[in-house]
Write a structure and sequence with these properties.
Blueprint (H helix, E strand, L loop, with lengths): L1 E3 L19 H4 L1 H4 L6 E3 L13 H15 L3 H4 L3 E6 L1 H15 L4 H6 E7 L9 H11 L5 H8 L5 H10 L7 E5 L13
Parallel strand pairs: 1-2, 1-3, 3-4, 4-5
Helix pairs in contact: 3-5, 7-8
Length: 191
């Protein structure tokens, strides 16, 4: 199981109960499944970060980490179950697209048996308020975070292209998607 956090998330904290501090993936899942290996992938997607890394960089790093973790012959044959929150789902899908198109990474795609999406914005996000916040933080300079938000906009060409590129990978995999059915409040600038 590989868990990938979302936008401005934390590799461990995103999966942990705020009250008890228990992490369901680590503390409960192994009770129901023997011989399970659980890995977490985190990356700096904080909107206030001055990092220049974007989605392409996150994807490259995730693929490299997967390759490193699956370097032995035994590990290469292990099944993969992906669990993603928010932007983590987009990152996973970008990784699978790359795995489909590059022969060297095809074992990642071939080993993927199931994907659990938690609040992944497949259709995009309302990013207007977030973009304004990032512009304020950056002094109006276009940053990698602003570019990332533009990719995640509702009805973005980036997300539409991603959906098209994934059309033929779904057979043979279990896909479970959890999403909200009611609009939630968005971040708003105060003052």
């Amino acid at each position: 199981v590989i868990a990938v956090t979302g936008l401005a998330g934390h590799a461990f904290g995103s999966w942990r109960d705020r009250g008890s501090r228990e992490m369901w993936l680590q503390d409960f899942l192994p009770q129901d499944f023997n011989n399970i290996r659980i890995m977490f992938y985190g990356y700096n997607s904080s909107l206030g970060s001055d990092s220049n890394n974007g989605l392409l960089d996150f994807r490259r790093h995730l693929i490299q980490q997967l390759e490193n973790a699956r370097s032995s012959d035994e590990a290469k044959n292990r099944h993969i179950i992906l669990v993603a929150h928010s932007l983590g789902g987009i990152l996973i899908l970008q990784t699978l697209i790359q795995s489909k198109s590059r022969l060297v990474y095809k074992p990642i795609l071939d080993s993927t048996r199931a994907i659990f999406f938690f609040g992944t914005p497949h259709q995009g996000l309302r990013t207007t308020e977030l973009e304004a916040m990032v512009e304020d933080l950056s002094g109006g300079v276009e940053t990698s975070r602003l570019k990332l938000l533009m990719q995640l906009r509702e009805n973005s060409e980036f997300l539409e292209t991603q959906r098209d590129a994934l059309a033929d990978i779904w057979p043979g995999r279990k896909i479970i998607s959890f999403y909200e059915v009611e609009k939630t409040r968005v971040v708003q600038k105060v003052g």
